[in-house]
Design brief:
By secondary structure, the chain is α/β, with parallel strands linked by helices. It is built from 15 helices and 10 strands. The radius of gyration is 22 Å and the shape is globular.
Amino acid sequence: MILRDFGKRSGHKVPPVSIGAMRLPKDLDAAVELLRAAIDRGMRYIDTSRGYPDSEWVVGRALKGGYRKKVFLSTKWCPWGMKFIPADDSSAGCVRRHIEEQMKRLDVDYLDYYQVWSVNSRENYNQAVARGGMVEGILKAKKEGLVRHTGFTTHDSVESLLKYIKKADWCDILLTSYNLLNTKYAPVIEAARSVGIGTVVMNPVGGGALAKSSPILAALAREVGAVSTADLAVRYVLSNPDIDTMLCGINKLSDVSDSISSVERGAFSPGQLKKINRCLEEIRKQASSFCTGCKYCMPCPEGIDIPFVMNCILDARYWGFEESARERYRNFKGKKADSCVKCGKCEKKCTQHLKIIKEMASAVKMFGKT
């Protein structure tokens, strides 16, 4: 695979697709074999976390036998996402203890990257950068040679992130979400890239959603020469010049080979991207008049999770994900559309003035009774 600059601050180069180590096989030997196969095929950046059950431990085993020197290893943690002891907090001393503990799990003597995990609010960011906080602890570990680069992962608002990026001179890489269905972080990724921060995106295939059957997106894929909706998704991300690499959550060998094959097919041309974006915009335009998930319709007197039901309808009707929407609907444990007694209270509160009673009947017809 071709290599891209991983921003300007790190000095590293990475291929367009990298290893996401969150969903590795449960069998140790299979997981180690899969990780090494991915590295042998050219993937060189590995994203793991203390919060991914045994991921660090498994990655450490896979990096034996000379594989450590072939990769850039990144891990992460935050106290607001996961505490392992009650005393865990956002202090410099606490993150330092976690860095050392994670290095032991990975069985390495340094980390290429250590990220503040899940900076999802202004409060999280302020905790991380406060005097005596996480960033201070990571930078101290960096001076001591335990960590070589740092950054953060995020699902915060675009508005807040654009402000953080301007002053985050300590940040070498940024990890956020971006895919065919959700491009809202495009301005953030562009801003990060412009100041030399390396950009990594998660969920390029929508957490697996874009690998599911969708006649609508399958038709679009054929129109622009993609071999599948998953291929369409990966190459769509590849076509954004502000993205340095995307994480492929690997669980089986085909996850590796399919992702690399998509990258090798190349980015879409401007003409192809125009077709894709025009189609997506039309779908979004149609969907925008449907449920926004505002939850003003709640609570339902019968206990139905109306926004959940409506979201399943939206995915099936507008995006064509009928099979996956039906599976999600049937696996839901709460009360569903067939519990509707047509009281109409939800419709009086709906900001979109939707005919919710009719949509509940549609859901029963589309997805079946519980």
